[in-house]
Structures are given as C-alpha cells and as structure tokens.
C-alpha cells in the first residue's frame, strides 16, 4: 500500500470501511442452554442470538418437529409456549414435563449458511418411598429374607438397609423400564426370639431429593414357641392385724418344681402346659381366714397366658372365738333350764290323787261300776281327783 498511488489507496480504504458496516461483514450465531427439570415440572428452553439481522429462527423438538417458526406456533401442543422473542434471546416453556419429552431441542438460524445449536433437556424422576417385601415368615432359629424395592426413578435410586445405625450389605438388582429404573436390595439375616420387634429401615437416595432420603421403616415379626415365659402372681391381702402367713397351693396337685414364693408373690419360670391348673392363695389372722384362686391356661397353639381370677372361696367372721364359746354355753344353759321347768310342770299337772274316803275303791266293785255307769255321786260319799 505504501507504493500504491494516493488516489488508488483512497479507493481501497473507502471500500474496506464500507464493507465493515455491511450485514455480510457480521457473523451471525446462535447458542443453546441445557436444561434439567423434575418430572411434572416446567422447563425453560432458551436460544441466545448474536448479531441477529432478522433472519428466520426455527425451534424443533427431539423428533425434529418444528415447534415455532420465528414467533409463530407450528406444532399444536399447548404445553409449549413462546414467552420471549428478541434480537438477543428466544425462550419457550414446556409444562408438565415427562420423560418422553427428554432429548435435544434444536435452535436454528437460517441465513446464507444455517447455524444451529442443541439444548439438551434432562428429566429427573425422584423415587417414591420404597416398599419392603417379605419372602417368608421369620421363625426362631431360621433366616428372614427382606427385599426393599424402589419401582421407578431416573436415574436409578440408591438403596441402603440400616439397623441400629449400621448398614447391612444387600444384593442389589436393577431393571431398565423405558428411561426409568426399578431397583431392589435384598438382605438375609438370622433371627432369634430376641429379634422380635427389632427396627430396620430401607433408605432411598437420589439426586432429585437434594440430599434428603425416602425411608421405609420395618419391624421384624419373629415367630417362636411360647416356652420360656414366666408367670408372676401377687396375693393382695388386707386385714387388721395384717396377715403375715400367706400360703400358696395348687388345687388337686403339688406346686411345680420351678415355683418360687416370696411373701405374697408366687412365680413360675419357663412355663409349659404341665403348669396349667388352679392356684390358691390363702391368708389368715386371729379373726378369720380368706382365700382366692387363679386359673392358668397355657397353650402351645396360642402363645399367651390367660389368668382367670376366682372369687373369695372362704371367709370367717371376725367375732372372737371366746365370745362365740360364751354365747353357745349360755344358749345351752338356757335350753336345759327350760326343759327342766317344762318337765316338772308336766308331771305335776298329770298326777292322780285319792281322798281318804275313796281309798277303798279298788275293794268295792260296786262303787267302780257306779262310777263307770254314770250313777249319781250322791249315793256314795267318795271324791276322785284325776
């Protein structure tokens, strides 16, 4: 240029200056932004424009169907809405997102050369609270198999078994169900009767839960025979003075060998059916005696103890024995006195007496005959007292 004639230099300089302001001197471009959204949520898909000169902008879905031609809707899907169209930014929204909407959305700028970028839409499916499946009943001395299941998530959820704050390793399996995943974790643990009611939990973690966990709690239900239980009875006694001597017995049988008696308390350890029967509690002081009974029913088919409290079977009066003896003696004495008086009066009224004038009645038959025949008493000077 330094050796170029001055007028030619001015011509070239002017051409370059005008070229820098022409539309063809600026390079148009488009940029897309990736989006991640939860299933059921709303996604915003944005396309950024550079040096936009009013050329055609087209947005297409992953199946290359045109959603919008500039600002005009091309696909009849009301879930898609054009919310912004400027020389610098084009933005659409997609509501009620599902996993089938996942994929690349194309932002295309049609000029002499077509420019496009892809905005990738990723859909997260958080897991629901997992469920626990039991393959078979847990029996004392055996094993229990528990399976924790998270039926649907994306990406696959992570499952952990926890007992007493410690993780129990499980066998994990995973199944692909058309963009979502089903996950399960199975554990096998030995069980004893002490494990009955033990607490376990299955935890599901997932990126969509933001550090939170979905937890399913489970309590072991262990079946076992009812041997080894104990029975404890307490005989509640009142009285004045309070009875000190409390006796326990078994009706029609002897007390079991493992029976322990401590004052009013009666206890049997390791119950069995041989302990069935009726147990009697007796208490006594100087003024009387009382008793009560309990019936023990123990069955292997029904692991429980049933107590049937009985009613008071015997109670003495609180009257002192000396008073009772005195009253009885007085009654006997009174009865004897009454009998003596009654007999004496009876004998006195039923006696037969004769006067001196009738003393010869037995020797004179005619007098007796006259008396029996009802003759007038004036014929003889005799008097009779019957």
UniProtKB/TrEMBL annotation:
Q: How does it sit in the membrane?
A: Single-pass type I membrane protein
**Cited InterPro entries:** CD80_C2-set, Ig-like_dom, Ig-like_dom_sf, Ig-like_fold, Ig_sub, Ig_sub2, Ig_V-set, Neurexin-like
The main location class comes to membrane
Output the Pfam families linked to this UniProt entry. Answer: C2-set_2, Ig_3, V-set
Q: Which GO terms describe its molecular function?
A: vascular endothelial growth factor receptor 2 binding
Signal sequence, start to end: 1-29
GO terms under biological process? homophilic cell adhesion via plasma membrane adhesion molecules; regulation of Rac protein signal transduction; regulation of wound healing
- Where can this protein be found? Membrane
The protein's name = Cell adhesion molecule 4
Protein source organism? Sphaeramia orbicularis
Name the encoding gene, please.
cadm4
């Amino acid at each position: 240029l330094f050796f170029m004639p001055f007028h030619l230099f001015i011509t070239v300089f002017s051409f370059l200056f005008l070229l820098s302001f022409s539309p063809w001197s600026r390079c148009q471009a488009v940029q897309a932004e990736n989006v991640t959204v939860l299933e059921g949520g709303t996604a915003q898909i944005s396309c950024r424009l550079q040096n936009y000169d009013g050329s055609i902008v087209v947005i297409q879905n992953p199946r290359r169907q045109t959603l919008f031609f500039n600002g005009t809707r091309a696909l009849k899907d009301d879930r898609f809405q054009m919310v912004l169209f400027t020389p610098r930014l084009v933005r659409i929204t997609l509501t009620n997102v599902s996993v089938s909407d996942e994929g690349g959305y194309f932002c295309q700028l049609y000029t002499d050369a077509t420019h496009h970028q892809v905005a990738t839409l990723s859909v997260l499916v958080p897991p629901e609270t997992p469920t626990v499946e039991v393959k078979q009943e847990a029996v004392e001395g055996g094993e229990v198999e528990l399976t924790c299941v998270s039926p649907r998530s994306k990406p696959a959820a992570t499952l952990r078994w926890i007992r007493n704050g410690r993780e129990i390793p499980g066998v994990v399996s995973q199944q692909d169900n058309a963009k979502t995943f089903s996950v399960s974790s199975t554990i096998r643990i030995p069980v004893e009767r002490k494990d009955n009611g033990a607490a376990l939990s299955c935890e599901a973690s997932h990126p969509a839960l933001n550090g939170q966990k979905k937890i399913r709690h489970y309590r072991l239900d262990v079946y076992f025979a009812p041997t080894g239980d104990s029975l404890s009875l307490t005989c509640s006694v009142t009285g004045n003075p309070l009875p000190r001597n409390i006796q326990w017995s078994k009706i029609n049988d002897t007390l079991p060998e493992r029976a322990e008696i401590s004052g009013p308390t009666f206890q049997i350890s390791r119950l069995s059916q041989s302990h069935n029967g009726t147990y009697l509690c007796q208490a006594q002081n100087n003024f009387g005696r009382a008793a009560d009974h309990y019936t023990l029913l123990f069955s292997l088919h029904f692991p429980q103890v049933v107590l049937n409290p009985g009613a008071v079977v015997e109670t003495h009066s609180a009257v002192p024995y000396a008073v009772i003896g005195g009253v009885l003696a007085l009654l006997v004495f009174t009865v004897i006195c009454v009998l003596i008086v009654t007999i004496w009066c009876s004998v006195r009224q039923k006696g037969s007496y004769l006067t001196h004038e009738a003393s010869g009645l037995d020797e004179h038959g005619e007098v007796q005959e006259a008396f029996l025949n009802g003759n007038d008493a004036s014929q003889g000077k005799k008097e009779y007292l019957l």
